[in-house]
Each structure stands twice: as C-alpha cells, then as structure tokens.
Amino acid sequence: MPAKPIIGIPCYQDILPPTQRPRYWMYQTYVKALEAADAIPVLIPLLNSEAISALFDRLDGILLAGGDDVNPNRYDQDHHPKTEPPDDQRDQVEINLAKQAVESHKPLLAICRGMQVLNVAFGGTLIQHIPEQVNGALQHEFNYDDYHNRHIVTHTVTIEADSRLASILGKGEIGVNSFHHQALDRLAESLVPVAYAPDGVLEAVEGRGADFVLAVQWHPEDMFHEGNRMLALFKAFVAYIQQNQKPV
C-alpha cells in the first residue's frame, strides 16, 4: 500500500494587539480535507528561507491556502484602497515555495489566495477589487456570519474539457462557493486557464507541463464534506503523489 504523503501548508500570521503574543495558525478545514484524502498535513511556520528549503525537501507536496491579499508591490502595482494590509513574510514564504515546487516538479495544489500567489510568483498580475475593475461582475465575495454556510454554492464555473481539472471534477458547469474580491489579471506564461465564472473571471489554472500544478479560486476545503465531488480534488492530488513516489 502506498505511503501516506506528507503535505505542507504554510500558516498565517495572526494580527493581534501588541500586548498579545504573536502566533501562526491555519483553518482546520484544509487539514481535514487532506486527512479525508488519506494524506498527512503538516503546518509550516513562516521560517527563514534556509529553514523552509530544508523542510521543503522532506515534503511530498505543497498546499497553498486562502487568506488575505498579496502585496501589490510584488506585481508592480500601487495599493487599491480595498486591498488588505500586506503580510510580507507570508507572501515571501509562499512565493518561494511555489517556485520551488514547480521548479523541482513537486505537486502543488493552490486555493483562492494560493492561486493568486502562484500567478504572482511566475510574473502574473491581479485584479485588486473585482466590483470596481470588472464590468458586469458577479458577486464573488460572500462573508457569512456562520462559517457552517461556507459550503453553499454561490455561482457556477465552466471547466475546460481538455484539462486535468475536468478529468477530476468533470467538464462543463459546476457549482462553487466564493469568498474573494481579487482575481487573476495578466496570466503568468507558465500557467493555463481552465475554468471561468459566467462574468469571465478566471476561476482555475494549471501548469503547462505534466506535473501536478493546479489552482482554484473557490474553496473546496469547505465543500468536500457535502458529497464527494470536491473531495475528489484532494484525492487526485494525493493519488498523483502516491503514483509518482520514488522507492525508498
């Protein structure tokens, strides 16, 4: 039986009053989704680049989670008034991990902010506030008082037929949840668009090669327990790693 792969998830930095001790954290749903797919999740603190590189070598895959906005300075833009305050340490760690994963052929799954980080890491840019910068945009940012409602479908996306994503979730329309006010603008040359919302906002991308590099703009970790369709995304990630594991 294949070994359970170890998947690294970089953490957040919690923004707290200066009188409280700073901390790293991550939502449990990412961990639970990987556990349900038979992987071993490991939370990665925001260490220096040398320590991150040493840890990276021991991981079988990387998951870039959702979160706050990437610093626009990283894609040569000024801050839009609606762009959230940056966490430069998290940006740097995740950009480095995205580059290391792609360059070393290590499987990578990116979710929401993670998809934006991946695009910026390889030279792409972002739409900083969809309501003001996309004509005729749907509502993409839903903030529920009760987090238990995060599995609710808020719009559809259309998945390109000849894509890895279609082989996992099926081609054509699929219902997704949505919690983002930013999106990909200029696409990095190393990425391929594979799903769009009805308003034209890009909702999923893949790497151009045969490696597992897949990113979605919605939050499958909040939907995987509602039937098995979104769980299939995590299972495909884990299965790819197991099928390509080198003998010990």
Shape: globular
- Gyration radius (Cα, Å) is 17 Å
Q: How many strands, which pairing sense, and closed or not: the largest β-sheet?
A: 9 strands, mixed
Query: Please, what is the CATH homologous superfamily?
Result: Class I glutamine amidotransferase (GATase) domain
Q: Give the % helix.
A: 25-40%
Low-confidence stretches: none
Instruction: Quote the CATH topology.
Output: Rossmann fold
Mean model confidence by pLDDT: 95
Q: What is the second-level CATH architecture?
A: 3-Layer(aba) Sandwich
How far from one another are the termini?
13 Å
CATH class: Alpha Beta
Topology as a string of helices (H) and strands (E): EEEHEHEHEHEHEHEEEEEH
Q: What is the spatial order of strands in the main beta sheet?
A: 4-1-5-6-13-12-11-8-9
The tally of domains stands at: 1
Content of β-strand: 15-25%
**Tally of extended strands?**
13
Structural class: alpha/beta
Q: Can you count the helices?
A: 7
Describe this structure as you would to a colleague.
With 248 residues, the protein is of the alpha/beta class. It has a single domain (6-243), classed as Rossmann fold (3-Layer(aba) Sandwich). Helix content is 26%, strand content 21%. It is built from seven helices and 13 strands. It has helices spanning 28-36, 49-56, 88-103, 113-121, 130-133, 164-169, 231-243, and strands at residues 6-10, 12-13, 24-25, 40-44, 61-64, 108-111, 126-127, 155-159, 172-176, 183-184, 191-196, 202-207, 213-216. Strands 4-1-5-6-13-12-11-8-9 form a nine-stranded mixed beta sheet, with helices on both faces. Helix 2 (49-56) packs parallel to helix 3 (88-103) and helix 3 (88-103) packs across helix 4 (113-121). It is globular, with a radius of gyration of 17 Å. The two termini are 13 Å apart.
